[in-house]
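User: quick one, fold this
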Amino acid sequence: VVGDPLDSIGSGPTVPDPWTFADCMKVLENYHLKGTFPKACLEHLDKGVRGLVPDTPKADDEMFRHATTTVVAGNATAVEVAAAAASALGFNTMVLSTFMEGEASEVAKTWSALAKEELRFRRPLPLPACIIGGGE
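Assistant:
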């Protein structure tokens, strides 16, 4: 996940959840998704908005007072290690970005264009080339 935000990278119950039931309902409304959601889920969110069911623990919850969470190897680390390994294998290596985001099919078009550029014109790197990127 770009930037290694702890609440988004699978940390589960070890970090506070900054989002509320109201935030979830806003997303559903903003993207006109309420009609596509299961009735039971909508009812649960509605109960949460009205305070009838407890929300997930937030940053001020006692349970987090002594909690520590450390990212051991995030996206940038993985890209750096891959680049070092490729260089050690003799590839001309370039890290394109560790902040790649977007719909996979759209991002794939960029990677495809880059591969075509490499094969036809030998740029941005001379062969053998290894262009690395990371993100979500």
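User: anything notable?
Assistant: The chain has a mean pLDDT of 91.
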